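Hey, I'm writing a tutorial for new members on how sequence and structure tokens pair up, and I'd like a real worked example in the thread rather than a made-up one. If someone can provide the structure for the chain below, I'll link this post from the tutorial.
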Amino acid sequence: MDIRFEKPSLRPRNPCFSSGPCAKRPGWTPSALEGALVGRSHRSKSGRARIQEVIDRSRALLGVPADYHLGIVPASDTGAMEMALWSLLGPRGVDALAWESFGQGWVTDITKQLKLPDVRVLGADYGRIADLAKVDWDRDVVFTWNGTTSGVRVPHSDWITGDRRGLSICDATSAVFAMNVPIAKLDVVTYSWQKVLGGEGQHGVLILSPRAVERLESYQPPWPLPKIFRMTKGGTLMGAIFQADTINTPSMLCVEDALDGLKWAEAIGGLPELVRRSEANLAAVAGWVERTPWVDFLAEEPATRSCTSICLKIIDPWFTGMGSEERAQAAKKVASLLEAEGAAYDIAPYREAPPGIRLWGGATVELADLEALFPWLDWAYAEVKGSGRSRP
């Protein structure tokens, strides 16, 4: 017997559950950008001071070690990772880990663009994670901390050795500010403003350890590097990049918005509170999943379930018994129905991921909004299922 649900009357106050760009911080309005230095040069004294403030506040909030470099770079997290891969890889063999789309993208860069001769790909299907015990730290290791398109995250950092000879290169864009990412155990960390703090897109952040800097200054890649990738001059790190002298022109509106997010994070209690909020959101989703027979987590192991990009699969036999294209269309109908009702925006899975639901649970998402969404999810799925069964 089909279960029908009454249409809920209470909608989330903020129906933005996109996994990027993500929800703005609670209470955000465009007035937060009134002090932006629009029309001013980013190289002016005031412009540089604003950019440096973003660097300093980011460093303090994340607890970046004093001898690490943190800089703002072009082209979002992708640009930051490309800078690292094209500038650092080559001297050692590479272990490339991939368990979702973005990790697979780095594998493609390493194997098909850079065409490195000594690459081991440690992969896993959606919902699972690569075998971390097989990683060889005599090699450079490239991985995502959180699989944004699979909802599978690294469960801990014990597998990252302190006496490694290779570099640990981590795409942490949907993890930093929501998870306890051990930056001191990583040699390269990249992320973008548009994720956990709800900033605007376009800009990336690149964090380098002293070991990464040593590699940059001692190694010259055999391939040409575009200007926006170059971090050394005459064999020496261009330190100005990490002191507000960005490689290309940043948007001062985006800089102001990043500052707003950082100040909000500081005001509510810093990184511990950001992590707590995100984990509380995951716990709420887990509670709903436990009492809901038609849905489950895509991540198979509880310890690997993301608290930011929370990916769910539909396990109802009506859904699983359909063909792959029908399943994809049914999942899209659930998302479209909720968007039309103004109850949830952008909750469809990533285009390369299995059909289902993806909810952003980062710190800018209010727990009350998630709890208001759950009845809407039940209603929307029942509506789609009912309409599908009533077809002639």
